[in-house]
Write a structure and sequence with these properties.
With about 170 residues, the protein is of the alpha+beta class. The protein is elongated, with a radius of gyration of 23 Å. Helix content is about 40%, strand content about 10%. Strands 1-2 form a two-stranded antiparallel sheet.
């Protein structure tokens, strides 16, 4: 076993609090580094989030009083993309301190005193987008998150036009 057996209170599917025994285990053998597929983990997370959204405030409050005090560690593999720092800097300079989607000034300045904007690839690199000035814009953190959650066609169209105009301006210079 990976640790001492212990007991804790947890709510069941109907929200009733019950005592459960926890038996910490550790996998052995060749499969001991097993991690469930990301699709399975995401599906379970979405199911729990959906269930939480449907709960009344009182039931949700009751459930949180018996939540685990430690989080579960999950290790996995991430894919990262190496981005061109010159393309990112160009996009930020073209934005002139304002978000290219909402057009508001950057919400704060970084430690160097520069307006804080995040670069965003209109067609995401994970979807085959290019790391070029024609596909990169500068967004405030709220709009950047909005693009990754909603990815609205109207916003994509607006940003595509902005990036195209800036790329053309770069070719003329």
């Amino acid at each position: 076993m990976a640790g001492e057996v212990y007991q804790e209170e947890q709510p069941d599917d109907e929200g009733m609090i019950r005592k459960v025994w926890i038996f910490p285990i550790r996998l052995t053998g060749e499969e001991r580094d097993y991690q469930p597929p990301d699709t399975l983990v995401r599906a379970a997370k979405q199911q729990h989030e959906k269930k939480a959204r449907k709960m009344s405030y009182e039931d949700l409050e009751k459930r949180t009083k018996h939540a685990r005090k430690t989080s579960i560690e999950r290790r996995g593999f991430n894919t990262t993309y190496s981005r061109d720092p010159y393309v990112a800097e160009y996009a930020k300079r073209c934005a002139q301190g304002s978000c290219q989607l909402c057009e508001n000034p950057a919400p704060f300045h970084n430690k160097l005193g520069e307006p804080y904007l995040e670069t965003h690839h209109i067609v995401w690199l994970a979807r085959g987008g290019e790391d070029t000035i024609y596909n990169t814009v500068a967004l405030c953190p709220n709009c950047h998150r909005k693009m990754h959650i909603l990815d609205l066609h109207t916003d994509v169209d607006k940003l595509t036009q902005i990036a195209l105009e800036e790329g053309i301006d770069n070719e003329v210079s």
